[in-house]
Amino acid sequence: MQQRLFKILLSIGLLLITSLGLGFGYLIHLHTQEFLDAEVASLHQGIQERVTFLDEITQREDTYLDQRLQVLLPNIYRLLTADQTPLAQVSLDRLFLIKNMYAEYGQLDIYILDPHSNIIQTTNPKELGVHLASYGTFRERIFDRLQTQTLYIDRFSTSAVEGSLRKFAFYRPKTSSDYTLEISIDFYSYLEKRYSKEYTELFKPSAFNTFVQTNPFAYYIDLYLVKAHSAFSLIHQNHQMSQENIRKVQALGYLEKQEGNFLKVYQLLKEANPDEILGHTLILETEFNLQNLNRLRNALILGSVLLSLALLVMMLFILRARLHKDFIEPLTQLKSNLEQLSQGHYLLSLPEFKYEFKDIAAAFVQMSHAVQARELALLEARQVLEQRVQERTLALQEAKSYAESLARTDMLTQLPNRRYLEEHFEYLIRDQNTYPLTLVIFDLDFFKKVNDTYGHHLGDQVLIHVGNLGSSLIQAPAMLGRLGGEEFVILLPNMHKQAAWILMDELRIHVSQTPVYVSGQPPIYVTLSAGVVTVTQKEKTQASFKHLLRCADEALYQAKASGRNCVRLYTPN
């Protein structure tokens, strides 16, 4: 009992330690998750502020540069065509000469476009021969505008390949041919000339790597520029973003994916806005290394579990000592007394108990006396009950036998009824030693006339008389039974049809010569007609009680047709 109680306490303790461990683990998980969420939010907020700041600076510089280009493009055009040289025939040397004159604008490139928007001369050899009209909506947005205006300055455009910002401007005076002058200015090099190299570094995508160095969990950062359902990396050119992730971020604004100890977070920094300078969709991708955080969380959870386990062990030892003294010893004594009581020792001497066990001991003594009295009463009651059970069992057996007899016996003649005849036939048909098996059906000739003449009471006496005559002649294993009305059936195992015919003819003669004597009435003579059918073992598969009864009934009909008071054998067809 002591071990069982200790196991119960141990189970409760384990349940408590498990609950405490789960509770501490859940709290630690919540705190670490909150800490991680705060770090992610802080990092994203810093990057968002940086992007907003860059948008403001870019907007300001774009406005300032527009004002300068309105003067710069006509000046460059006059320098290129100073000696009446057509724009289409300007040499490359002159282009580079003028480019160097305006080095204050940083990386400035000059282009000459033919009427079909092909670059026929440029200071950037990589773009010589490029057909600008093939670049999306260039003709609709820029080239067609030069049909109605002389100067067009485009806003800053991002280069997904180089990760750069460039400013494009176009000039076509009405007095010239259809050739167009185009210049482009690199935003970063322009800022270096206008301010300083350190100031320009703040605008480059690589400057965002400082956020990785200041965040304890950030592994890397990348910015994706989304154009036409494709994302181009601005920091790590070898990184790619799937179209599925692009759609999810654009729809939800935020997406998290965790693989092992690494957590990837995608956040929509900017949605496409044609009214802004950098009007493309901008997505921030941040990957966090959670290995150190997970280690710290697991260490805290393990520490809490070990501490709870130590407290549990201490608590169990204290509880065990108190339980043994206050509960185990009294319960052990009570158990010993219960064993004596179970062996029939009702006079018990109990020691002194403390606490509630004193009341339990007193109640225990009262119980022993009550049990003794009740056992004596139960013994007497059991003897009476056993006697009644024996009497009821005997009565039930007699009633059962009588019910079975009623269910299988004809109440008038006390012969087997149709149900018993069918059951006995099924038994005979399955027995291999009962063939040939003969069935005889006979009824009393003109029995209705007997009922009409003498009444049904005398008719019943006639049926009983015929049944008694048949029973005296038909011996086991044959069976005589009443089918119903004035019809009787005889089952004759191991008897050929000729022997059955002789037996039935003997019964016919015996019935016709033995009258029924009733007080106050003249003797009543009756005759019978019978039909006989026999089945062999080969025919038993097709034989059934109803089938043989129908065949015997046909033979009985032949006997009736032959003048009654005779026996006929069944002949097929």
Automatic annotation (TrEMBL):
It comes from Allopseudospirillum japonicum. Residues 325-376 form the HAMP domain. It catalyses: 2 GTP = 3',3'-c-di-GMP + 2 diphosphate. The chain crosses the membrane at residues 299-319. This is diguanylate cyclase. Gene3D superfamilies: 3.30.70.270, 6.10.340.10. PANTHER family: DIGUANYLATE CYCLASE DGCM-RELATED, REGULATORY COMPONENTS OF SENSORY TRANSDUCTION SYSTEM. Its EC number is 2.7.7.65. Its cofactor is Mg(2+). One of its GO terms (molecular function) is diguanylate cyclase activity. Keywords: Membrane, Transmembrane, Transmembrane helix. Pfam families: GGDEF. GO terms for cellular component: plasma membrane. Residues 435-572 form the GGDEF domain.
